Amino acid sequence: MAILETFLGPLAPHHLSEVIVGIVLMLLIFIVMWKAVVPMFEKMYAERTAAITGGMEKAEAAQAEAQAALEEYTAQLADARAEAARIREDAKNQGAQILAEMREEAQAESQRIIAQAQAAMEAERAQVTSQLRSEVGGLATTLAGRIVGESLEDDERTRRTVDRFIADLESQPVGGGQA
Amino acid sequence: MNLTLPLIPLEGGGYTPPGTQDFIWPGLIPGLDWANKPFFQAVIGALLVILLWVIASRRLKVVPSKGQFVSEYFYDFVRNGIARDILGPDYRKYLPYLLGLFSFILVNNWFGQFFFFMYPAFSNVGYAYGLALLTLVIYIGAGIKKHGLGKYLKQSLIPEGVPFYLYPLIIPLEFLSNFITRPITLSLRLFANLFAGHLVVMVFVVGGWFLMTYPSQSAGDEVVPFFNVAGVISVLFSFAILFLELFIGALQAYIFTVLTAQYVSSSLAEAH
């Protein structure tokens, strides 16, 4: 040390141990920093970064989900609208069809009723005609017999007379008959 | 009033000015003269650094508490402000050394301003030499590990674009500047700042105290407390110097760490 001091003056270390102690202490500190301190801090930083970016990712995912849900709902709404329109259209068409069918049916029914009534009327008329014919014949012959005083009991003759009379009636025009 | 004040004689006046002898400490353990005050301070400083950082690194939370906020501030100061800025993406490997270096120097420098110690360990040049040597080993090792011995030596001794006939001149110069002056300036800068700073503080405190307690001299029949007033001012001023020393201590710790990072970075660089 004495030799160093003569050359370096105050720049010579007082004890060589100072240099060694400085190095040893610094190495000790370095080892603790290397093994314990820095890894802990870096781990915490990594966790913090992960927490922040994770939160951001989560928020982004939630937003995307919300967007997707909104789109889905919009699509569903549009579907529902189209469906409603379609159903309304169908209903309208069906209604028109039903109406037409009903009308047709009613017409057919009315035709049927009319036809039935006509047939009944025809039958009744025929019946009445034949009844009338026999009654009017009988009556006329009776009356004629009374007026003529001649027995018209002879069936053969009577029938001929009545038939002729009716044939006359029928040969007369309708207008004439009414007049 | 007599205006010519008698000066206190420098020699034989009972006043010993602070000097280099104040930086020589006796051994505190009998038989071990190197186990002196600076030695114990350095050991306590190192233990304090280790203890504080180990406590700080326990139970680190993603959401920091107040204490963690402070330790993170210091950690980030070295990590982002020094290591990452200078070393770039490779900084993780060197961060433990830089962090330890900064904390160790800072704590020991601030010992110069704290009760009980009142002495910066790095004003003993040996400790500064030790740290500079370690830094030298680390930046040479970093260069060799990255480039291999031959390429590293070539890179650090021959700057790019120098014609071959200048090699005899440039190689010794580069060797001096990269492997000799770097550690010497590193250690001397740290040592000299703290040495001088401590000396200035001592001058103001010791000298001021001496003047303050100097028996008032009589000039003629008047009592003139000139020296005592000057002593009070000097002692008060020493507090301002102490604050300046706090700043210088932090600054020197920062500079030592930044230069270490800088030297490592220049060793790692692809080309100069």
Give a concise summary:
Chain A is mainly α. Chain A contains four helices and no strands. Chain B has helices at residues 37-57, 66-87, 91-110, 125-147, 149-157, 167-212, 226-268; strands at 217-219, 222-224.
Task: Please tell me about this protein's structure.
The complex is a heterodimer of chains A (179) and B (272). Chain A is mainly alpha-helical. Chain A has one domain. Chain A contains 4 helices and no strands. In chain A, 9% of the residues are buried. Chain B is mostly helical. Chain B has one domain. Helix content of chain B is 68%, strand content 2%. Chain B is built from 7 helices and 2 strands; from the N terminus they run H-H-H-H-H-H-E-E-H. A two-stranded antiparallel sheet of chain B has the order 1-2. In chain B, a hairpin with a 2-residue loop joins strand 1 and strand 2. Chain B starts with 36 loop residues before the first helix and ends with a helix. The model of chain B has no long low-confidence stretch (mean pLDDT 86). Classes of the chains: A mainly alpha (179), B mainly alpha (272). Chains A and B meet through helix 2 of A and helix 1, helix 2, helix 3, helix 4 and helix 6 of B.
